[in-house]
């Protein structure tokens, strides 16, 4: 954990104190009283800056997620978008195993309010990775389904691993789940093995924002048609 300073007022100090409490005792340890004492501020300051405890937890999660990415993101984007998806999966699972309390707050908030802002940012990164695969012509299913499969399988794998004591975890579970999903959504070559409307629709839909000759209405209509082709059955006769 990187300790922050008071250069920007008490907010960084409060977030840092709450993050330490989270790592040591989980979300239940992050009470307003405990954070106030650890950060050396009064409770009203926390409410003024974050609104409520959930607002504070969201700030802690966002800070922790950004810090983790800054520590781990040393690999530049490669020419192989599928390899980059593999790296993104491993980074995702690594966050879960190294900082389980933080990860659980990202994807399984105790208030039932859905994903945290940090989780939604991570989802956007995943969508961008899948978009690159689609543009390369290597996606065998519609983008939305591919993103959903990777996201649901990845978070499910991570939360399942967190729930098991480290010494009893299946060390190959994450790799097996990753490769199963990648096999389900991608092709082995830059083009579909049997060119047809499905592959063409997926690739064109992914690159549609680069088409400048259409009006907004025409682009929206074409996107609707392409989504329908990419999501529907394709005749093999």
Automatic annotation (TrEMBL):
Q: Which UniProt keywords apply?
A: DNA-binding
Domain HTH tetR-type per the UniProt entry, residue ranges: 8-68
Pfam families from the xrefs? TetR_N (PF00440)
**Does the record bear DNA-binding in its keywords?**
yes
DNA-binding annotation, residue ranges on this chain: 31-50
Q: From the UniProt annotation, give the residues forming the signal peptide.
A: none
PANTHER family registered for this protein in UniProt: HTH-TYPE TRANSCRIPTIONAL REGULATOR RUTR, POSSIBLE TRANSCRIPTIONAL REGULATORY PROTEIN (PROBABLY TETR-FAMILY)
What name does this protein carry? TetR/AcrR family transcriptional regulator
